[in-house]
Design brief:
Layout: E1 2-6, H1 11-20, E2 28-33, E3 53-57, H2 63-72, E4 77-80, H3 87-92, H4 95-116, E5 124-130, H5 154-173, E6 177-182, E7 184-186, H6 195-205, E8 209-212, E9 218-223, H7 224-237, E10 243-246, E11 251-253, H8 254-268, E12 280-283, H9 298-304, H10 312-325, H11 327-334
Parallel strand pairs: 1-2, 1-4, 2-3, 4-5, 5-6, 6-10, 7-9, 8-12
Antiparallel strand pairs: 9-11
Helix pairs in contact: 1-7, 2-4, 4-5, 6-8, 8-10
Length: 340
């Protein structure tokens, strides 16, 4: 397997590289990343000198460069994670989400079609997507692989579009594909703009912790290293043309998560003086804020035998401890300019 991972310097991508680079099936692992504000080679310090590892600084919007990488390294398998992914940023500036998530995916598919030239034996294109394409759930029910798409933000609309492109290239051109739609990830190396690392950093800085609306929006949370194993199972054992939902079986309201992190910081960093919950501040809800997401991952469990190894309680404890132990990493990545 000569494997290309797009977005490998990002949060999920870097955890995935750490998780699979020593697998005997992987002969070469090429990390393609254009190093936006959320992509950092600091996430990969322990693998930079690995004999299997190659880094290519390439923007997916550069079609000739994408084709060059696939041809130069004889890529046989692709795990496509590169995407603009922050919902708030998609509301204030949707253009990058359209160009990267849709046009970038198109360029990658076209490069595969050109380089593989109809020879799809031992080839696979794995598109990594999100449960946000399904829209919002009520108080009950779960997203399944047959749930109709109903995206409500520019981010989720761009990911839905790229899902449809991948599906179309499978049915029209025969490109061997699998698609995964995952719930909210958390864990080490997540850039401090998403809920959990933002809350941890606010706790440590003794700053107000903003909570949207009433704080009762519910998400299903998936520990990133459990996600990495699920992705590997789908890449290597999933059925061609199929979609698999990946969820953590951990539904939590945002406010409960914030309170839990406050309590963990009080426990693990008692020198801060405790009473961290007092920093919680409710702010105006964001536009189009979906009320609840929840994933039914039973297909993945039934067909491939995957179940998450972490509960939210032990995963979030590991995560808080990791950020406490890696404040130098936080300062390093926050020192990088953020465009837009």
């Amino acid at each position: 397997m000569k494997l290309l991972i797009t977005g490998g310097a990002g949060f999920i991508g870097s955890n995935l590289i750490h998780h699979i680079i020593d697998r005997p099936e992987v002969e070469r692992l090429v990390n393609l990343d254009c190093l936006t504000y959320a992509g950092h080679l600091a996430n990969l310090e322990s693998v930079i000198r690995h004999p299997k590892y190659v880094f290519e600084k390439v923007d997916l919007r550069d079609k000739p460069a994408v084709l060059r990488v696939i041809e130069q390294y004889g890529i046989t398998h692709i795990m496509h994670l590169a995407a603009e992914s922050h919902v708030d940023r998609s509301i204030s500036g949707p253009g990058d989400f359209i160009s990267t998530n849709i046009i970038g995916t198109f360029n990658l598919l076209e490069a595969c079609r050109g380089a593989w030239n109809g020879n799809f034996t031992n080839r696979r294109f794995h598109h990594v997507s999100t449960d946000e394409v399904y829209g919002s759930l009520g108080a009950t029910g779960y997203f399944t692989e047959t749930t109709p798409y109903a995206p409500n933000s520019p981010y989720s609309a761009s990911k839905a579009s790229s899902d449809f492109l991948v599906r179309a290239y499978h049915h029209t051109y025969g490109v061997p594909v699998v698609i995964t739609n995952c719930s909210n990830n958390y864990g080490p190396f997540q850039f401090p703009e998403k809920l959990i690392p933002v809350v941890i950093q606010s706790c440590l800085a003794r700053k107000q912790i903003p909570v949207y609306g009433d704080g009762l929006n519910v998400r299903d949370w998936l520990y990133v290293r459990d996600h990495a194993e699920a992705l590997w199972q789908v890449l290597t054992r999933g059925k061609d043309g199929e979609t698999y939902n990946i969820g953590g079986h951990n539904e939590w309201a945002n406010l409960r998560i914030v309170e839990l992190i406050c309590d963990l910081v009080d426990e693990l960093s008692p020198q801060l003086g405790g009473h961290t919950r007092q920093l919680i501040t409710f702010v105006k809800d964001r536009p189009g804020h979906d009320r609840r997401y929840a994933i039914d991952a039973s297909k993945l469990q039934r067909e491939l035998g995957w179940v998450p190894a972490h509960t939210f309680e032990n995963g979030i404890r590991e995560t808080v401890q990791w950020y406490l132990d890696n404040q130098l990493w936080v300062k390093t990545v926050l020192g990088k300019p953020v465009a837009g």
